[in-house]
User: Fold Phosphonate ABC transporter ATP-binding protein from Yoonia algicola.
Amino acid sequence: MLTIERLSKTYKTGDTALSEVSLTVPKGQIMGLIGPSGAGKSTLIRCINRLVQPTAGRILLSDMDIVSLGKSDLRRQRRRIGMIFQEYALVERLTVMENVLSGRLGYVPFWRSFLRKYPASDIQRAYQLLDRVGLMEHADKRADALSGGQRQRVGIARALAQDPELLLVDEPTASLDPKTSRQIMRLLTEICVERGLPAIVNIHDVPLAQQFMQRIVGLRAGRVVFDGSPDLLTEDALTTIYGEEDWNAMRNGDTEQAEAEADARDRLAALVR
Ligand SMILES: Nc1ncnc2c1ncn2[C@@H]1O[C@H](COP(=O)(O)OP(=O)(O)OP(=O)(O)O)[C@@H](O)[C@H]1O
Assistant:
């Protein structure tokens, strides 16, 4: 379980990115983080893995306060948090298997990681994970030979190889087409439920968040302005989160996108007729 208590961050520039954010994410819950650009979503995720040092507040991962950890403790504790990135962050010239195994680097001694010699149990486990994400037959391929969706599956398997207690997921589908995005979100949510793994997902796509998240937290100007189940995310709630102007722009954007897709479909249908 993750508990965030009155977390604040003001950058050296004077920008206040988070103001007294308090949240509890229980085991197995997959929570979507939404909000306009600059609302503080990335800062929140970065505070949790301590890429950013909070100005005030506490972040407890099963009773361990992440904010007060010193450097060497931090290195050890970071392996408890799995990260999944928008651009996958794979090592392109390594194989799928090697990428998944790199999730174990926080556990193996330096000489082993240097020689890339992993214990047999790690290798066996990596195969199980590759099977779970549907990539068994791609284990020996180089990462750069995979599609976007397949790469994100490797990213998921690598994060799970860490045996994390929490997943932080940063716009996992931003580089994927709509169908692949849904497949990836389905896989992620199923895995979190299976393992009782809590996850925080920074997600721009509101309909996708509504479809897959169990809970949605809306940030605006560094404060939590919505916290509830997806079906409570009404137009009023979205206006509170995004503001009238941005929310209307998003809606118009959706309409334009739908119109463009319908137009492309019609033209394709005319061609094959
Ligand atoms: N390294 C930094 N130094 C100074 N200010 C920063 C830094 N990173 C973020 N900020 C500021 O903090 C605020 C929150 O930014 P953050 O990137 O967390 O928002 P976000 O919700 O993730 O936005 P986006 O959806 O555009 O990624 C913004 O005002 C931003 O300008």
About this structure: Residues 2-233 form a domain with the Rossmann fold fold (CATH 3.40.50.300).
